[in-house]
Amino acid sequence: MASPTVTVVRYSAIFTGIIYGIVHQRTLQRQYDEQKARKAYAAKKAAEKGGASSRQSIFQALFDTSDHAAMLPKTKADGLTVITDPDDPRFDLEKLVESWTKES
C-alpha cells in the first residue's frame, strides 16, 4: 500500500503531464495551421503570377511572404546598424544593449 504522499505525487505528475500534453498539442496545431495557410497563400500567389504552380514558383512565393525582416540587421535613423543575430561574426553585444537603452 502506497503512502498518501506518494499517491499525491503520482497523481500530480499525471495531471501535470496531461495539461502539458494539451498545451503542447495546441501549440503544434497552431504552427501547423499557420504553415498550411502560408503554403496555400504562396500557391495561390504563384498561380496568379505565372499561371503554372511549379515547385520553384511556390518556393519563391513562400520566400517572399516569409518574415525575413527579423533576420536582417536593424538600421537606425542615424545610420547605425545593430546586428541582432548572435551567430553573426559582426554581432556586438554592447551596441545591442546600448540601442535598447536608447529606445527606452
Description:
- A hairpin with a 5-residue loop joins strand 1 and strand 2.
- The protein folds into 2 domains: 1-66; 69-104, no CATH class.
- The protein has a two-stranded antiparallel ribbon with strand order 1-2.
- The longest helix is centred in the first third of the chain and has 47 residues, at 4-50.
- The chain contains 3 helices and 2 strands; from the N terminus they run H-H-E-E-H.
- The chain starts with a helix and ends with a helix.
- The chain is 66% helix and 4% strand.
- By secondary structure, it is mostly helical.
- It comes from Tremella mesenterica.
- F-type ATPases have 2 components, CF(1) - the catalytic core - and CF(0) - the membrane proton channel. CF(1) and CF(0) have multiple subunits.
Summarize the structure.
F-type ATPases have 2 components, CF(1) - the catalytic core - and CF(0) - the membrane proton channel. CF(1) and CF(0) have multiple subunits. The chain is mainly alpha-helical. The protein has helices spanning 4-50, 55-65, 93-103; strands at 74-75, 81-82.
What summary fits the major beta sheet? Answer: 2 strands, antiparallel
**Care to count the β-strands?**
2
Task: Give the SSE string.
Answer: HHEEH
| Percentage of residues in DSSP E strands | under 5%
Give the strand order, joined by hyphens, for the main sheet: 1-2
Q: What structural class do you assign from the helix and strand content?
A: mainly alpha
Kindly list the characteristics that best describe this protein.
mitochondrion; mitochondrion inner membrane; ATP synthesis; mainly alpha; 104 residues
